[in-house]
Structures are given as C-alpha cells and as structure tokens.
Amino acid sequence: MGAGAIGTSIAYQLSKAGMRVALFDRGRVGGEATGASAGMIQLNPDRATPPDLSRLELESARLFPALAADLQGRTGMDIGYRPSPLLHVALEEGDEARLRTHRAWQVDHGISVAWLDGSAVLDLEPTLSPDIRAALFYPDDHQLLPLTFVQALARAAVDLGAVLREGAGIDRLLTDGDRVIGVAIGGETVHAGEVVIATGAWASSWSEVLHTPIPVRPVRGQMVGLRTSGTGLRNAVSSSQGYMLTKPDGATYVGTTVEDVGFDARPTVSGIAGLLALVPRLAPRLADATFVRAWAGLRPATSDGLPLLGRIPGWHGVTLAAGHYRDGILLAPVTGELVADLVVRRHPRLPLDAFDPGRFLVRAA
Fold identical between 5-79+145-215+303-364 and 85-140+217-302? Predict the structure, then answer.
C-alpha cells in the first residue's frame, strides 16, 4: 500500500525474491512526498542523530550505485544518480561558529568534510555571494531524479511480475481475528498473505482498525523551481535558511519550508516568498532566473525522528514501513531490502529494534 520511494522499493525487492506482489496507490507512482522532493542523497549526521539511524543511512547510501545500475539494466531508465557535492555555507558569524562545532563532531565520527574559507567557497562555486563567510564541503554526496527513481522501481517490479494499481485507494483492511488477510477497494477485495503499509504521512489512518498507535504526522515542505539562461550551480548549496540545487536537466530547485499544518499540501505566498528571497542572498547571479513553478509535499514525520519498520504488535500478516520524514529517498534502498527480508522470513542484516513500531505501543501503555 503506497507507491512512493518506500513502497516501490519494497515491491521491487519482494518481486526479486519471487513473491507475487500487488502495488496499490490512490494516485500516481511517486505522486506525493517522493515526487515533491529534491532527490538529494546526503550523509550529514550531527550529535542529535540517533546512531541506529546513522547506520541505516550509511548502508542505504552504499546501496545506491549498484541499485542505479541494476535499474538501468532492467528498465533502460537513468535515475539521474550523480555526484553532487554539498556546500553548507555560513552567512552570519553565528553560523560560522556552529559549523566549526558541527565539523569537529563529524570529523571525530568519520564523516568526510572539509572546511573552506570564503574565498575558497567562491573558487569552488563562483555563483555564490561574496558575503559568505565560510562553508563545510561534503565531496561524497549525490543526487537523483526522484520521480524517475520510483518509476524505474515500479517498472522493474512489474517486469518481474508485480501488478501495479494506480488510482486505487485502499478503503479498508480485511481482518480475520488477529490476522490481516488483504485489502478492500470499494466492493473489490484482494486477499494477501502479507500487507505492507507504506502510505507515508497517511499511515496513521490505520491506527484505529489495528488498535495500535501509528504516530506519523504530515510536515509540509514547499519548493520552487527556477531556470537560468546560463550555467546553474555546480554543487548543492545549503544554509540555515534553506538550500539550492541544480538538477541534471538544468532546473534549479530552492527549498524548503518545514511546516506543521496538517494535510495541507498547498504552496503558499509566504512560503514561496521566503524561498525566493533566499536566492539572491545565496547566489546573486541567479536573481534574474525565470520562475518556473512552486509545489509542496507532505513528509511523514514521527515524534522521535525514527522511521517505523517492522511487524505491528498483536497482528499477523501486516508490516509497517513509514515515518521516514526527509530521508525517504535516501532510505529507500535499505528499507526495501530489510522489509523484504521480514516478509520472506529472512533474518535482516541490520538490527531493527530501534525502529520497531511497538515502541509507541509500550509508551502508550
């Protein structure tokens, strides 16, 4: 249930394992948070990042090169997986002090990150403002095309025998005692040995029927797309106010807001105005870029910042894979493999205790 980055990755891995798979989405493949994202593959933990999440991110990033090659070989689709080094810049004196502290922690924890002064930043990215005081440089980060990525996963799954149903919203879960035995779409029932809930910010809608807290909430992120007549950014550029990134097709993305506004996925005047104001501050040469479009997506957030991966306590035949927040693209490869391991009764190669959906049930009790 759900054909975003997480759902399509799981469907692909289950199809590779020889399972009969049906993939349902109420809209289109990648039509929600995945399609609204910038597609950055970045490893930028700090002292607040739980170690279990860092390990999950690192393993998932390691899987991307082989997965990109595999998908291109199976489908002929280039998902746009490319090096995209990140410059995290300091615009204010306070920013510079925070970046120094942040870098010291990351170096101690094995992250590849360099310190650049203002002149070195401009040598690397001449489009940026001369007011930038310094930056952290992450040479090993990447990016991809989010919509192409999930479309390739879905196509590869279908080529392996999966059934894709777009425009098919699940109305209810079919249950028999303590077992989920399928789903219903209107008057149609589809029976299954296992149901995987990968519906992103909407995963909490199944809490009541499963008598289990699924505390996933939507967090809106607004984005702007620009196009320039000249060369875009060579690197991804971020600051405490937002980020900019030029995609392989030449479009430059500017993002993003972080807003707790419920299930409201509208781009707003104030949100877009704030993003547009960031452009001349970070990259004055892009101030005359053409405004192309604005959009927003709803990220699935949890109260403790960790995704929900695993069996739902007290139930058989249902697995949860949700709550990836801003890491849905990054964590898609490893989530697909780990959830497939659970479904086919293989032992997952990474411990999942920290992501157990039952942790919230224990707290509620």
Answer: no
Classify strands 216-227 and 251-255 as parallel, antiparallel or unpaired: antiparallel
Give the 3-state DSSP-derived string for 279-305, with helices as H, strands as E and coil as C. HHHHCHHHCCCEEEEEEEEEEEEECCC
Please count the other Cβ atoms lying within 10 Å of the Cβ belonging to residue 335: 27
The structural domains of the chain, with segments of one domain joined by +, span: 5-79+145-215+303-364, 85-140+217-302
Is 168 within 8 Å of 351 (Cβ atoms)? no
State the pairing for strand pair 86-90/134-138: antiparallel
Is 5-79+145-215+303-364 in CATH node 3.40.50.10490?
no
Q: What is the pLDDT of residues 99-136, one digit of tens each?
A: 999 999 999 999 999 999 999 999 999 999 999 999 99
CA dihedral over 339, 342, 344, 348, signed as positive or negative = positive
Phi-psi map region of 94: left, alpha, beta (phi>0 left; psi -120 to 50 alpha): alpha
Pairing between β-strand 236-239 and β-strand 86-90 as defined by DSSP bridges: parallel
The DSSP line for 187-203 is TEEEE-S-EEE--GGGG
Residues of the chain with pLDDT under 70: 362-365
CATH superfamily of 85-140+217-302: D-Amino Acid Oxidase, subunit A, domain 2 (3.30.9.10)
What sign has the CA pseudo-torsion 350, 355, 357, 359? positive
- How many angstroms separate the CA atoms of 150 and 332, rounded? 10
Write down the pTM of the prediction: 0.95
Q: What is the distance between the alpha carbons of residues 248 and 79, in angstroms, rounded to a whole number?
A: 10
Instruction: Give CA–CA dist 259/268, Å, rounded.
Output: 11
DSSP letter assigned to residue 270: H
Question: DSSP string covering 5-72, please?
Answer: HHHHHHHHHHHHTT---EEEESS-TTTTHHHHS--EE-----TTS-HHHHHHHHHHHHHHHHHHHHHH
Q: Is residue 221 within 8 Å of residue 184, measured between CB atoms?
A: no
Q: What pLDDT sits at residue 171?
A: 94
- Phi, psi values for residue 136, rounded to 5°: -95, 135
